[in-house]
Every structure is written in C-alpha cells, then in structure tokens.
Write a structure and sequence with these properties.
The chain is of the alpha/beta class and 462 residues long. Helices cover 29% and strands 17% of the residues. Strand 15 (377-382) and strand 16 (387-392) form a beta hairpin. The N and C termini lie far apart (56 Å).
Length: 462
C-alpha cells in the first residue's frame, strides 16, 4: 500500500502573484520559484478571497470564508472550535508542524500560544503570533520563553523547517512554514540582496500613480516607490534562496517524490499601483497571489494553469490530493482534479470579500466591500451596493479603465452583480456594516481588546 503523501506548505506574507520570473516579471530574480514551476504547475489566476493577513490565513487553514470562521479582521483570533486541515491530518496519523508567523491568536501580538486547541492541530510549534522585525526574529516552542533567531528571520525559520524534515520518521508529515517578508518593513533585508536591485532601474507597472484615487488618502509616509519596490523584490529573492534550500533538503532526504510542495502567499501588496498601497483592495496587485504546486510524477510539470483557484479552496483541494474526504462544512472547492491535470468542472468565479476594514485600509479611506473575479472580469462594489470597480482584465490587464459607470457595460455589471448575489446567498452574507458583523458574530469583546491594544490613542470601540 502506498504511503500517504507528505505536505510542505510554504507561504510568504504580502507577496504579489505577478512578482516572479515564472509569472512574467523578469525584473525579479526567482530561480528556485522558477525551478519549482518547471517541476510543477503554476496557477496564474490564484487569488486571496479576503486580502488581509488574519482572515486569509484562517481561510487557508479552514476552507471557510471569514464570516464562517469568524476571524474577520486582523488580530481577531481563530476560534478554537474551528477545524483546520492540520487537525484533520493529525487525526489520521500525520506529524503536523507550524513554523513562522501565526497571526491567528488575537492580541497582544507577542503572546505565547500554548500547546492545545489554540494551535489548531499543529503538534510541532516554532512560531510567533505576529511581528515584522526581520533582524530580531523570535519564536516560541512549548514554553513561554522566547527563542531568538540570529540574522535574517526567514533563514532561521527555514533552518528549523529543515531540522523538522530531517527528524522525519515513519509518519507522513504536514509542515506549514510562514515567512514574514516581503511584507513591510521593506528595507529590512540583507544588503547582499539589496545590491541585486538598482532602484533607478526599477520599471514601474503601467498602473503606477504617485497620487491616490478620489476618496483615498495617501499613507505611504514619504517612502520612495522605486527604492521600496527594489527592497520588496530583494526580499522575494531572499525567500527564493530559502525555498531552494527546502527543495534541496527534500531531495537529499529522499522525500521529494512523496511530498506535495506548495508555495503561495496570503495576499498581495498594491505598492502604488492605482495610487494605493498595502492590501484589503480588489485590484489584482492586492488579491492575486503566487501559487505553485509540485508533486513529482503526479502534478503536471512545467504547466501554466489558468483555472480560478482561491485561498478558500486550498484545504479541500489538498485533502483531495491526499486521498482524504473533504468535510461538508468546508466552503471551498476540491479542485484536486485540476491540480492533477484531469478533466472536470472549473470554478466560474471567485468570491471576494472584506467585511471589516482595519488599520492601513481604514487610514486610506476604504470601507467594507464585496466582489467577484472571473477569468476575464473583476467586479467590486461597496457593501451598501454603491458601484466601485469593473475591469476587463483580458483587454486591460493593468486595470487602467474602470468600466463601472459605462452605459455600454451596464448589462455586464448587472450580470456580475447577479453572480455576486449568488455568492452572498450561498455564504450567508447580508452585507452588513462592519459594526453589525462584529456584534452579530459575538466578537465585541475581542474587537475592543484588539482596538485598545493596537490603537490605544483612538480605539474604535463597540
């Protein structure tokens, strides 16, 4: 009987899907991501359903949308009652491990997550709830004494991951490794990677704008766009080197034939495209994420797949690949047949949602919104029904012409609104104001704790 496959799930934080050589950006040096794509499948229409850290991470692990798993905003904890892919795999005999940024245990961000239900099925633990200080990295194991990581944080985290792989025994493993970069602070990257990128040579995307769009506020705090993007790419190249170490370790340990390897991110980063920064927005730079899946001999190699896949589909799809039953409570789709290159139905749209806007999004002037992404179109509107965005991504890949108010495209807008309403009905989303969502989910106390911790001078209390 064939041994169940291992799973190595590696993800960056705030990395755009288009910023890899294999994805078409030749300015970014990513030889190991490119190598992994040549040995597996690159998904060019992979998106984050809710493009912000905590909700997206919870969606990845549970296969459920934010209003279902209730981690609807950064720094609201994922309830212990939620069932993750790690819990499922642990219960069928997998050795489970989590390394790196967690961001699913509420506030304070430096809190210790003890062994037990708040680790959501992960047995081995070398994680930190949330911090972005890449030259002073720390992690907790099974006691509340921080362990210091020397040098650049992703290097230390990768070393822990390789040690986990080296200790592999008779049980199949499931290891999640979460790197903090290329999330800000952008400049906290070793000089040898910075030296690879000359800011004066950075070619900005055609939708770059130094000014925010109407109704938005600039929160870039004087950062130079070319210098910032150069550092962002330097982080990606640094991560690429660590990915190469992991792939080499799998080969040296004779694990690469029996291990499903996933590389992705929780969401992207606008980086002045459309005149905005950060995430929580429905434009491509915010929602589209890298996704490469390699399983030697099973997943087609050197393939670019344009099927729609989103973070809510990750857990059910991986369970399907591993030959396990997908629980009915998962709202994502098992797309394992697509990953394996087999014929079968493909999703026609991806549901996009931001039920609660926080922090950087709030400071920019964004409010809660919903949308859909098809292979060709992106449509988003504010939660109160007011139109916002409509793009033909085939004719306008940089989303330069907003068609939302064009009379010629009003039939298309109605059609996509119909698709969106179908998603709202299926997910039980009444598009309430953020305060009502928080209250209805019974999160007021946790929300107030979050606000007092992160914004003590001006908390939004309920």
């Amino acid at each position: 009987m064939r041994r169940p496959p291992n799973l190595l799930f590696v993800f960056a934080d705030q990395m755009r899907g288009m910023d890899m050589g294999c994805a078409g950006n030749s300015q970014v040096l990513t030889p190991n991501m490119d190598r992994m794509a040549s040995e597996g499948t690159l998904f060019v229409n992979a998106c984050a359903n809710c493009p912000v850290c905590t909700p997206s991470r919870a969606t990845m692990l549970t296969g459920r949308y934010p209003l279902s798993h209730r981690a609807v905003a950064n720094d609201l904890p994922l309830p212990s009652s939620e069932v993750t892919i790690a819990k499922i795999l642990r219960d069928v005999g997998y050795r489970t491990g989590y390394i790196g940024k967690w961001h699913l245990d509420g506030v304070p961000r430096d809190k210790f997550t003890p062994p037990g239900p708040r680790r959501h099925g992960f047995e081995f633990w070398a994680a930190w709830n949330c911090a972005h200080d890449y030259f002073h990295g720390r992690l907790y194991a099974d006691t509340p004494e921080p362990i210091e990581l020397k040098g650049y944080e992703p290097v230390g985290q990768t070393e822990v991951a390789i040690e986990f792989l080296e200790e592999n025994g008779d049980r199949p493993f499931c290891l999640f490794l979460s790197w903090g970069p290329p999330h800000a602070p952008y400049a906290q990257v070793p000089e040898r990677y910075k030296a690879l990128y000359d800011p004066s040579q950075v070619q900005l995307r055609p939708n770059f704008s130094p000014e925010p769009p109407p109704g938005f506020r600039d929160i870039s705090t004087g950062l130079d766009p070319r210098e910032t993007i150069a550092c962002y790419w330097a982080h990606i190249t640094a991560l690429d080197e660590q990915l190469g170490r992991l792939l080499d370790a799998l080969k040296e340990l004779h694990l690469d034939e029996d291990t499903i390897v996933v590389f992705t991110s929780d969401h992207g980063d606008m980086l002045w495209s459309q005149g905005t920064t950060k995430k929580e927005q429905p434009w491509e730079e915010s929602i589209r994420i890298p996704l490469i899946i390699r399983w030697k001999g099973r997943v087609p190699s050197g393939r670019r797949c344009d099927a729609l896949i989103s973070t809510v589909d990750f857990a059910p799809t991986l369970l399907g690949l591993m030959g396990l039953e997908v629980p009915r409570y998962m709202e994502g789709r098992d797309l394992s047949h697509i990953v394996l290159g087999k014929e079968g139905p493909e999703p026609e749209s991806i549901f996009l949602t931001e039920p609660v806007i926080v922090d950087q999004g709030l400071r920019q002037g964004i409010r809660e919104w919903r949308g859909v992404r098809t292979k060709r179109y992106t449509y988003a509107r504010w939660a109160d029904g007011e139109g916002w965005l409509l793009y033909d991504n085939e004719a306008d890949p940089y989303q330069l012409e907003n068609l939302i108010d064009s009379p010629e495209f009003s039939p298309l807008r109605r059609e996509l609104e119909y698709v969106l309403r179908g998603w709202l009905e299926r997910t039980g989303d009444p598009c309430l104001p953020w305060k009502e969502n928080i209250r209805n989910l019974g999160l007021s106390e946790l929300w107030n704790a979050r606000e007092r911790e992160l914004h003590p001078e001006d908390p939004r209390l309920l």
